[in-house]
Amino acid sequence: MELGVVELSRLQFASTALYHFLFVPLTLGLAILVAIMETVYVMTGRPIWRQMTKFWGTLFGINFVLGVATGITMEFQFGMNWSYYSHYVGDIFGAPLAIEGLMAFFLEATFVGLFFFGWDRMKPVTHCIVAWLVAIGSNFSALWILIANGWMQHPVGATFNPDTMRMEMTDFMAVLFNPVAQAKFVHTVSAGYVTASVFVLGVSAWYLLKGRHLELAKRSITVASAFGLAAALSVVVLGDESGYTAGETQKMKLASIEAMWETEPAPAHFTLFGFPDKEARETHYAIHVPWVMGLIGTRSLDTPIPGIDELVAKNKDRIQSGIIAYDALMTIRADKDQVPADVRATFEAHSADLGYALLLKRYVDDPRQATPAQIQQAADDTVPGVGILFWAFRIMVALGFAFIAVMIYFFFRSSFKGQSYPRWALRLAVIVIPFPWIAAEMGWVVAEFGRQPWTVDGVLPTALSASQLSVGDLLFTLIGFVAFYSVLFVVEMGLMLKYIRKGPHIDVKETEAWMARHEARLTSDRGDKPYAAVPAGE
């Protein structure tokens, strides 16, 4: 297989995924925020909260539609660009995606229609329930997709069948409760909540700067800052959990994120800054924070984190063990029903390392014929791009702490300063709008690029997963995807800006009717009303 085909297939899927993830975080977060706003409307009956729900719900709808359009293409790519991957692990990977389509997506899509077209056809409480079902459906979609992705990071509940040459599921509950998948889910959705909170905060700040829709903007900032602060704190805490699971299940990824070339005595330090040099196997001008990485990666002060060089040596041993498994597998395939028991026993003893032998397929057709130099080269390939991971992780973390600071400030001003905000702070809130997307994309770079050279960690190399396509086919479709998605992105931005400039629809009759009822409550001379006027002479 041409290496160019694999690289172009990866680039095509990466570009599709990165475009798709421009829409996903905002959908996840806005769905919850809109449901919260409608809940307040049902509890208070105040028209301003209905206006807020409709306004932010409109922006959610635009984003949701374009997110669906880009997401559907990704699922087709598993069959088009990654056919051997789909054949090899489809029994496991396909199950969560099927459940997502049957359960979460249909739930979400059905109730989205009711949300937008049911305002005047349902009671407020019923419509509020619909809003929450939309939010739940959105998050359920993320759950099942991340269960599938988490299995690629940490393949559990499955085994390789030498008779069918495929991975087969053995324990669905293990796949469902995969610790990597659960950590990724809570971390990802929390990041989506931060994205939506920063978006609502920034748009509302723009309204205040322009002196428009002041009531909506102030209330939206209050909701967004409170929800966003909780979400931003959750991202940091849950990101720490992701670091711990990586330390348990993806040691090479963790070492590469840290540019930790050699194993250091426990507790390992955290490299705050530096310039990784893969050729020299060192990090220049490194600034270290003692103990931090040891606590993140091992939850202890006495457990070392293995360095890249140690892990490469272990992977070399696993490649040699995998060659034994590959040799036994070829015997099983040749003899079929007359396989000696000792051959099957040998395969079972070394089957966990079969994937490492398959890394040699990049250099030699038969891994059993690999030279020591090729084995060493395959072991070196298990180190992902250290420099990219190092900086992507630090950009993500730095932005995460910046969001906490922004949310603390606006939460304080909303709660204790009478919803008054300096103009410099409002301008800052507008400037910050795109940064959650940068943090989210950096997070996906860390998660997916850090898994290389594997499609399924330790099981199936990326170089074997692609379809038998030509470079020309891939270039043509890559250009087409990028062009089409760029158009969709421009459409998204145009529609969002149009409706933001337009602002919320204010139902004057509804507002006046509510104000009349409110004034009647305040001026009532009956003692059973709140704020009742005190009769003269008392």
TrEMBL record:
Major subcellular location class: membrane
Keyword annotations for this protein, in alphabetical order, are: Cell inner membrane, Cell membrane, Electron transport, Heme, Iron, Membrane, Metal-binding, Transmembrane, Transmembrane helix, Transport
Annotated membrane topology:
Multi-pass membrane protein
Look up the signal peptide feature and give its range: none
Supply one GO molecular-function term.
oxidoreductase activity, acting on diphenols and related substances as donors, oxygen as acceptor
Sorted alphabetically, the Gene Ontology BP terms of this entry are:
aerobic electron transport chain
Q: Where are the transmembrane segments?
A: 20-43, 55-72, 92-117, 129-152, 185-209, 221-239, 388-412, 424-447, 474-495
User: Can you quote a single GO CC term?
Assistant: plasma membrane
Give a yes or no for keyword Cell membrane in this entry. yes
Question: Does Ribosomal protein appear among the keywords?
Answer: no
Where in the cell does this protein reside? Cell inner membrane
Q: Which Pfam family name is an example for this entry?
A: Cyt_bd_oxida_I
Check the record and name the InterPro entries matching this protein: Cyt-d_ubiquinol_oxidase_su_1 (IPR002585)
Q: To which protein family does this belong?
A: Belongs to the cytochrome ubiquinol oxidase subunit 1 family.
Protein name per the record: Cytochrome bd-I ubiquinol oxidase subunit CydA
Q: Which organism is it from?
A: Pseudooceanicola albus
